[in-house]
Amino acid sequence: MDHLRHSGLPFEEQRLAFLGIIATDPLIGETLARVRDLALPDWLVVSGALYNSVWNHLTGKPPGYGIKDVDLFYFDDADLSYEAEDAVIRRAARHFDGLTLPVEVRNQARVHLWYPEKFGQECPRYTSSSESVSYFASKTHAVGVRYDADGELDLVAPFGLDDVFSFRITPNRVMDNQRTHEAKGKRAQECWPEIEVVPW
Questions:
Q1: Across residues 133-159, what is the average pLDDT?
Q2: Are 75 and 109 in contact (CB under 8 A)?
Q3: pLDDT at 1 over 70
Q4: Closest CA to 187 of 145, 137, 152, 116
């Protein structure tokens, strides 16, 4: 199987291929439909469940292979308390009950409050869910999708898609996230040996 058939193509061709794969993946499709019904502000399904599904499709692996969960971002700066986010997480847990993959929900307006304690460094105060994606440890992982007002899948990919389609995990050095980049790269190679991890 030619798993690199979309590598090096123009962005628009890659975008259509990416969204086409995501839209027809049964696990991601059902999850996105449920997320839309949850109606969180500035929501975005991001990262692993997306690019892992693309790699599964291109290497002939079954849907869901290697995917631990679905990451769901939203942005609500009206109330930055832990309690407000926890209430959304609890509501989401009930809403997503029965899905094959667990859904991890996080308010991106609050990341700067807990990030320093967890990771030992400061984090910018994000202004949207899309902005937070551009701070991921690896550029390859910086992808997100959501439905737009017309019900079409909308893509957020600040670094493009060529790394995804080239099976290449490239560091994003905007922050000191070397450990995360290397750990995620190692895990990915265990599931998809076709992957190249670019050194930090």
A1: 94
A2: yes
A3: no
A4: 137
